[in-house]
Amino acid sequence: MLLIVCPYCGERPEIEFSYGGEAHLVRPKDPASLGDAEWADYLYARSNPKGVHAERWRHTHGCARFFNALRDTLSDRFLATYRIGEQRPDLA
Amino acid sequence: MPPDRAALARLPAASRFILRGKPAAVTAAGNVFGIGLPEQACRAAVAADRAALWLGPDEWLLLAPESEGAELGATLARAMAGAAHSLVDVSHRQIAIEVSGPNAEAMLNAGCPLDLDPGAFPVGMCTRTVLAKAEIVLWRTMPLCFRVEVSRSFAAYVWRLLEGASREFGPQPKRCGE
Amino acid sequence: MSANFRTAEDGRIDRSRPLGFRFDERSYQGFPGDTLASALLANGVHLVGRSFKYHRPRGILSAGADEPNALVAVRRDEARYTPNLRATQVELYQGLSAESQNRSPSLAFDIGAVNDRLSRFFPAGFYYKTFMWPRKAWERWYEPWIRAMAGLGRAPTLPDPDRYANRFAHCDVLVVGAGPAGLAAALSAAEAGARVILCDEQAEFGGSLLAESDATIEGKPAATWLAETVALLALKPRVTLLPRTTAFGYFAYNMVGLAERLTEHLAEPDPALPRERLWQVRAREVVLAAGAIERPLVFPGNDRPGVMLADATRTYLNRYGVKCGSRAVVVTAHDAAYRAALELHRAGVAIAAIADLRTAANGPLPEAARAAGLPVRPATTITGTGGRLRVTAASLAPLAAESDRRGAEPLTCDLVLMSGGFTPSVHLFSQSRGKLRFDGELAAYVPGHSVQQERSAGACRGVFGLAAALADGAAAGEAAARAAGFSAARARSFACHASGFGTGGIRSVLPNAHGAKAFVDFQNDVTADDLVLATREGFHSIEHVKRYTTTGMATDQGKTSNMNALGIVSEALGKPIPEIGLTTFRMPYTPVSFGILAGPSRDELFDPVRTTPIHDWATAHGAVFEDVGQWKRARYFPAPGEDMERAVARECRAVRQSTGIFDASTLGKIEVVGPDAVEFMNRIYVNAWSRLGAGRCRYGLVLREDGFIADDGVVGRLAENRFHVTTTTGGATRVLAQMEDYLQTEWPELEVWLTSVTEQWAVIAVQGPRSRAVLEGLVEGIDIASRAMPHMSVAEGRIRGVPTRLFRVSYTGELGFEVNVPADYGRAVWEEIFEAGQPHGITPYGTETMHVLRAEKGYIVVGQETDGTATPDDVGLTWAVGKTKPDFVGKRSLARPAMRAPGRKQLVGLLTEDPHFLLEEGAQILAAPNQKAPTKPLGHVTSSYRSATLGRTIALAMIAGGRDRMGEMLYVTTAERPVPAKVTSPVFYDPEGARLDAA
């Protein structure tokens, strides 16, 4: 069971959380202005990297907040977690 | 109940509100509620027979005696008028169970994955978490006493689970609702 | 017949209390402190099982978790029948009853032993090569035959009556293994103030200390030091001691799974105690002190009962007071076997010879053996053993003469001690994803790079010998405590006097053992020749060799065999061991029960059973319930003698003709509150909300961003800034999560908040032409006349003094209300309404009737008519979509070409030609009755009921281009033949909606 640092509540066990897919995909302000391909890209295309992945989690059974996390998909280690609206941390 | 036994008890009905809102509303609510709403994550503030539990960065659970509910709701709403907020009466949404005694941590840890050592979960700490397959709000009210708030339809499950976990510690406490 | 092999006084058993036990219907005696294995050996019993494939007689090999042979079933009663337990780990209790496995009719005479003589027909990969063809024979013949012959015990036939517990725990330092290294580590960490959990799979802490005869620690005999140390640890409040607890799995983020056995060792288990407990321990730091496992030697006949690991015989002698035989031949490649020989010799066991595979046998232990007059033969090998059910002789030959077996000298004996050296137990380290390193000097894999917060100590990282293990453990405990934040941690140092451990070892087959049955993996009956054959047949990767020969794949996961297998493959391929690679260690370290994994989650705690405030009333009134997710919902209320069909027909008639009462409390409810509530609703729902006045309701439809229907429900606007949203029973959590997602991550600027009130309100639906009449006398402060409270409106007031949110809504097509009251009052208000309804013939109805009534009206159920690929238009709900709204969740997707393409499945009604034929939900729909498979169906039936109101069956279906097929005759599959049905409008009853106001 993973241990995830909620930016509000601190270290909590994985079963309190739900996964929310890739982070930093902003919903277009005016979806009607997008072409079909662009919209399909927003809906379905994901980066699925091997390595550091910015992703959304929600502390569902805790403070109920969504937040973002950087996780290494190879080692399954969390490198950082940060609140919605905050910049993706520079790990370098 | 002998003091060295794990104890499980259903607590009396209570008035409950979920308050969410902007800081101005939160401050105003605290003023009339009589307790400043805690800003520190996962902490409860208590005064007399009322309590305010931090559940999220803009979410509090307010507890008061059952008889005060209707008037309290109106008072809070008046105090916050003009400031953006949401006040919702959830008195009947959940029920409260008290888990106490020297084995309280062990009983809860039968289903709750948090570290309940007083160093990690001190008196006054509260949080939503899970108890096996149910969501609960867990609040340590005293060194050997926890209050569990659980949605009413999960209460029987939570009670049975805790009761099963308590069995090895001593005689069985009375059943929920009896 | 049972000879007595018990020593006069040694050991940790309690000789004052003899225990009776049974093995294979024969009675024996042992003592508290015995294992089943030690008690059997004390009675001279070595033969305890038959091997997996060849049914060869097998005896007890080891004294611990590594045992591959002595698998037994322990039976308290039929419900408490546990197969495949290692006799070396089964604690003896009064009345224990155990039996051997994989033999028929008896251990001594086993029919399956014919396999042994046919063994040349059972080479590596035998199953793959043989049971290939014909395909059907696999199920009918091969599999049953293999299962009968290759037994691993049987399952109990009755449900497990015992309780299993779960415990989440946290600590600063978890120490796995309470041998000398683990105890020293726990002491260091505990004395620094750390919260420590110390677990050990055995009944007693001590590990190798339990078998020490003459060692002293801090000037005290090892046993005394052990007792004092355990007592000291037990007194520390922040130390948890867990004997009989196996660390079986090492998971992410330093979570370690422990299996604690609480009652297995008790003659009369305390019913208050769980049988086993799963500990899920999250440790800041872990110290692995798992010890090492002695390797067997691979030589012909090395599996004969009476051939044992040398150090195990020492454990049996010193810990249990058992001599494993009278006359022993010792074969070794490691000095440690000399220690065993010396101690057995002192106990009165004759040592016929010590054959040392090394050309020179020097060092303190061999010298001590010589000094004691034991016949040490360097450069000597063993070429075979004699005997059938027990070893009677061992043949030794000088290594130089290895090519000539006739030069072998048979020595009479009833015990063969073997030692190929020791393999560090790196299982948990490997499970933690740490990288193993091959240590050339030790010729062993040892822990290398750690990826979690752990360290190994003592023999499991190749640090052998008592003094070294204590020092290594103390240092590991100190380092772990420091890493956990206890900077004052100090490693204890221990003055220790013990005989040396010595050196040596071999990892392969002994010289000239090929061509005979020299076993590598005892449990899966894999010989050295099988491995060599596999390499010849092209399996060069150790992972392939493993799967092809099944070496290391038995329940012991190759604890005693893996290193020998690697060595043999390495020699066969001419590559050094590190280049062969290593198979993966997987959890569990030793088998764990299904019970402990299920824990308390069984029977009524398998899953939460959610009930409504009206549940008990429904039970008292004979309701039959159905599961809807975790909820129990009343499905119908049969009168005496009624089946479901009749009950539902009666309930339907009551609602259509007078009034019915229905528990809708499980509906999801969300309160949406704040200045931006209406803006939020406009963005989330397809509907337009701005012009919905306070006090009015609207049917709301939620899409996912991909345009498909997610959920639906009636929404009431209570005030300018407050909406009371309802969702489907199953969709409550999902809809709230989707709303929170958009609110928190896309539109954080909106001043609106969401609160789940599903369980705050009990919901009592009162439906039917008499519903207003029923409620009129009960409602206070609300005018429920049609003018004041039209269809789709909501008002707040009281009902018999109880605050209520009264909705005028209808999911039946009749005049109807939904009374929302705080849940604690739900039952009382329900009873008041039921009472007031008596003059009107009010009838309680369940979900089945609700479904029939809504289907007659063509109202969809999300998840029944829709399946995650239906758009609003597909199900005829285009009217709900706000045409002028610039955006809402899912809107852009509705404009994608595929969403507007002709030929999409559309909701229609279906009427079978035979008005009494009931279609099956899910049945496929065809254009013609005789279409040959494969064919593409036009669609499927989504709902199908008998309608009492219409006097016939009705169905809803999703059919390609369905709305253009009105009146067409299509064919619906059944088990027998396609039946004809006509496509109709999905609204079967009151299409004008006149009944909504019919009173």
Can you tell me about this structure?
The complex is a heterotrimer of chains A (92), B (178) and C (999). Chain A has 92 residues and is mainly beta. Chain A has one helix and six strands. In chain A, the strands form two sheets. In chain A, strands 3-4-5-6 form a four-stranded antiparallel β-sheet, with no helix packed on it. In chain A, β4 and β5 form a beta hairpin. Chain A is globular and about 40 Å long. By secondary structure, chain B is an alpha+beta fold. Chain B folds into two domains: 81 residues, Gyrase A, domain 2, CATH 3.30.1360; 76 residues, Alpha-Beta Plaits (2-Layer Sandwich), CATH 3.30.70. Chain B has four helices and ten strands; from the N terminus they run ββαβββαββαβββα. A five-stranded antiparallel β-sheet of chain B has the order 1-7-10-9-8. Chain B has a five-stranded antiparallel β-sheet with strand order 3-4-5-2-6, with helices on one face. In chain B, β8 and β9 form a beta hairpin. The longest helix of chain B has 12 residues. In chain B, 53% of the residues are buried. The C terminus of chain B is likely disordered. Chain C folds into six domains: 158 residues, Roll (Ubiquitin-like (UB roll)), CATH 3.10.20.440; 203 residues, FAD/NAD(P)-binding domain; 125 residues, FAD/NAD(P)-binding domain (3-Layer(bba) Sandwich), CATH 3.50.50; 79 residues, BFD-like [2Fe-2S]-binding domain (Arc Repressor Mutant, subunit A, Orthogonal Bundle), CATH 1.10.10.1100; 91 residues, Aminomethyltransferase beta-barrel domains (Alpha-Beta Plaits, 2-Layer Sandwich), CATH 3.30.70.1400; 109 residues, Elongation Factor Tu (Ef-tu), domain 3, CATH 2.40.30. In chain C, α7 packs across α8 and α12 packs across α14. The termini of chain C are far apart. Chains B and C meet through β2, β6 and α4 of B and β8 and β39 of C.
